[in-house]
Amino acid sequence: MTWVRLCLWLALTLPGAAQALCSVVTTTPAGFGTISSIAVRTTSQPSSTLNGGLSCTGSLLSLLANNDHFWATVTSTQSGLLGPTGDVIGYTIYANNSTSYPLTRGTAYDFARNGIIDALGLLNGTVPKTVPLYFGTTIGSNVAAGVYTETLSIFWNWNYCSGIGVGGLCLGRDINSGTTTLTVNLTVSNDCTITAPNIAFGSAPVISAFTPVTGQTINLACTKGSAYTVGLGDGQNAISVGGRRRMISGSNYLAYDIFKSAGTTRWGSVGAARRASTDAEVNPGNGLGTGSQIFNYNAKIYTDQTTPPAGTYLDNVVLDVGF
């Protein structure tokens, strides 16, 4: 009788050796990196963290049943990433690295469902593994440059069978909960979209027959709230820095220049020769993000030069924006 009781005791206890242990741990921050304001507005930006605050080890994936749960409830005092001027960048949190399983703030999400815990291998083996989280920004955020952050509160709550006996009998359940915080950040950099049509003086037989090009515009849509200046380089063939610009055909030159607005002040690339965003003819001031600021200019060929040989004369001028 003693031998029979001993065998029964071993049969009940040995299969239950596979046990699991989960705990709430300190998270690893999620960073989107540095992204231009235009990219933030037009394209969903991805990010992730390999550690969303829940760590588990042990057990077998195949033992998860319908009454086993790993809930996460995400809350925050903010509605998204908050920047230095009060702008907010919205984003969505996902349970895997696709957009298939979004989390809703304030609503418990069960990672034991949809095969997510299984795919993570969270309970497989003896080495602790953490739950990753994934993020994607919302398209359409017109925001100023700066650092954007949010601190999320994540309440983890789990209830699952942590040991299996003969015939699949559950020998005990791991039931616990805890709260951790996760910091998410993104840095927005200044940027612009630029529309700058080419200048065409047309054709003429002599220098004096060329007419000035007027009514030309350069359109810039720069980061919301950004103060900037716009410079035009001296081209590829200028006599000297800040000197007359020149087009070239073979070894021959044709001097010309570009002037601010409708006046005679040369538009250059250094110091006062540049134009400030406050100097725009349309929407002067800091950048608008989604709206254009328009700078007028005119160009002319200098008439105090000798008419060069016939040919097609070209030059390339670099436009730069400084913040």
UniProtKB/TrEMBL annotation:
Residue stretches making up the Spore coat protein U/FanG domain: 17-153, 179-318
Pfam families given in the database record: SCPU (PF05229)
Leader sequence segment: 1-20
InterPro entries associated with the record: Spore_coat_component, Spore_coat_U/FanG
Presence of the UniProt keyword Transmembrane in the record: no
Keywords tagged on the record: Signal
The protein's name: Spore coat protein U/FanG domain-containing protein
Species name: Pseudomonas kribbensis
